[in-house]
Design a protein that fits this description.
The protein is built from 16 helices and eleven strands. By secondary structure, the chain is an alpha/beta fold. Helix 1 crosses helix 5 (about 80-90) and helix 3 crosses helix 12. The protein is globular and about 60 Å long.
């Protein structure tokens, strides 16, 4: 196993057209194709403390890559932005990101593909003793939001709130935007009444006794998006991985086997306890449960249909990645691993 480390400030990462920036930002090889063609090896970019690392550690600990006949090489990424740059520059063969970003890359001529990694979604979390019972109870409250005012989760929550109440959530709450760890600490310290956060942070809060007011799965269902398509998945460039089709197929076989182990093996999870950074048994159990609930069962035509409905909704809501509707939906993005 080989590890590299890449760091880049997130503000440097634009939604598209990253090739030139990537060349300036990272020390890339003279020819990414020369490395991409290195037989039997696959380089996967992963955030050091992200949930993908748990799955990849399981693959390596169980020797699943060797069983499949390839070598998994991990590249530690400092941020999701660095991961995207690593992929587009050719310094990583596969990363994990959301498919709207992948859709934008396809629209700009980058032949990327997407295979589901997790269907786990975030949630609006509140304290166990909070008087709030429904989404309408958010009115007049302070809500922390992981990300910015243009991020998908916030836009979808606003759309659902509007459908349920006829009001714009942004007009009736006091939103506070920030990084996921910051939002988590804000609600723990009682400075906000609710927190809209990613699934790993929601799971940690649940382990601390907080509860879901509404999940993003409920939000999507309420907006008519069913079945819920995985938003996050493995993304790779067909051009930059030309000649490694066999390794990619073997990689997904190893991933399926790794997830089968994590779906049933308590011993495998004990091996991950330290890297999950869980502060208590209850937090650890919540992380495990959330992860297991999000293990994908492949990609189906029905999910492609749901993804297209969600895509159109995100365009209507002004989601930043989709460039004001200039990005077109392309079902060829989706790969059934």
């Amino acid at each position: 196993m080989t590890n590299k480390n890449y760091t880049i400030n997130r503000r440097h990462v634009l939604a598209g057209g990253l090739s030139g920036l990537a060349a300036a930002a990272l020390p890339i090889p003279l020819s990414y194709s020369a490395i991409a063609a290195e037989a039997g090896k696959l380089r996967v970019g992963s955030l050091k403390f992200g949930s993908l690392g748990w799955l990849l550690k399981t693959v390596l600990d169980e020797g699943l890559d060797k069983q499949e006949g390839f070598e998994l090489q991990l590249i530690d990424m400092a941020s999701t932005g660095a991961s995207k740059i690593g992929l587009l520059s050719g310094d990583a063969d596969i990363i994990v990101s959301d498919w709207p970003w992948g859709m934008r890359q396809r629209s700009e001529g980058e032949a990327v593909r997407f295979a589901p990694y997790s269907s786990a979604l975030g949630a609006v979390m509140v304290a166990a003793d909070s008087p709030m019972k429904t989404i309408g109870d958010l009115e007049g409250k302070r809500i922390g939001v992981a990300g910015s005012s243009l991020d998908k989760s916030w836009l979808l929550l606003r759309a659902y709130f509007s459908k349920e109440t006829g009001k714009d959530l942004a007009d009736v709450v006091s939103p506070i935007f920030g990084a996921a760890p910051l939002i988590t600490e804000q609600i723990r310290q009682g400075r906000i009444d609710a927190a809209l956060n990613f699934w790993t942070f929601s799971a940690r809060l649940k382990g601390d006794g907080y509860r879901e007011l509404v999940s993003l799965d409920d939000v999507l269902s309420g907006l008519g998006i069913s079945p819920t398509p995985s938003l996050v998945g493995f993304i790779w460039s067909e051009k930059k991985t030309a000649g490694k089709e066999t390794e990619i197929a073997k990689f997904f076989s190893a991933i399926r086997k790794g997830n089968e182990i994590l779906a049933t093996s308590e011993e495998a999870w004990e091996n991950l306890r330290k890297v999950t950074r869980a502060k208590s048994d209850s937090e650890f159990e919540a992380l495990k449960a959330y992860y297991r609930s999000g293990i994908p069962k492949g990609w189906t035509p029905e999910q492609t249909g749901s993804a297209e409905k969600l895509f159109k909704l995100l365009v209507e809501l002004g989601e930043k990645t989709l460039n004001n509707g200039k990005v077109k939906f392309d079902p060829a993005l989706f790969y059934d691993a």
